[in-house]
Design brief:
Helix content: 25-40%
Order of helices and strands: HHEEHEHEEH
Radius of gyration: 15 Å
Low-confidence stretches: none
Bound molecules: tetrahydrodeoxyuridine
Distance between the termini: 47 Å
Shape: globular
CATH architecture: 3-Layer(aba) Sandwich
Strand content: 15-25%
Number of domains: 1
CATH class: Alpha Beta
Structural class: alpha+beta
CATH topology: Cytidine Deaminase, domain 2
């Protein structure tokens, strides 16, 4: 019924922040974290209601590890979805909110400089800030013009 109402009234946000956070937490089961034992999940929501999820995937050569956010970003882009990202939820297991690392902020800025970033901590609480607050004066495609 809710889905039907969304279609009829064209609700701007097809999913609540809480629901997107849950999708990020659900990705912990796929995290490959034999070194840090710190699973992270991410979920990108698009304006047409699609969700691209990701988990962190570590590597014996530690520097080759990829964060959950970048896994989700690469999944979206490699499926042909480069724009219309409205929010990304990131879920860690720690006491602190799981804010994206510098590399992930930069990658997000490329495709979605105005995206809402939802950072969740282990107890399920979360905070929401625009990416511009996490990466002010970012360097992006426009900077090359
Ligand atoms: N990690 C993420 O996946 N996203 C973040 O925002 C912070 C860190 C991962 C990388 C590594 O697998 C583990 O968390 C510990 O740093």
């Amino acid at each position: 019924m809710r889905k039907l109402l969304q279609i009829i009234i064209k609700e701007e946000r097809p999913m609540t922040d809480q629901e997107l956070v849950k999708k990020a937490f659900d990705m912990h089961q796929f995290s490959y974290v034999p070194y840090s034992h710190f699973p992270v999940g991410a979920a990108i929501l698009t304006e047409d209601g699609r969700v691209f999820t990701g988990c962190n995937v570590e590597n014996a050569a530690y520097g080759s590890t990829i964060c959950a956010e970048r896994t989700a970003i690469l999944k979206a882009v490699s499926e042909g979805c480069r724009e219309g990202w409205t929010a990304i939820a990131i879920a860690g297991r720690g006491e602190d909110y799981c804010w994206p690392c510098g590399a992930c902020r930069q990658m997000l800025y490329e495709f979605a400089p105005e995206v809402r970033v939802i950072a969740a901590r282990g107890d399920g609480q979360f905070q929401v800030v625009p990416l511009a607050e996490l990466l002010p004066h970012g360097f992006g495609p426009k900077s090359l013009k």
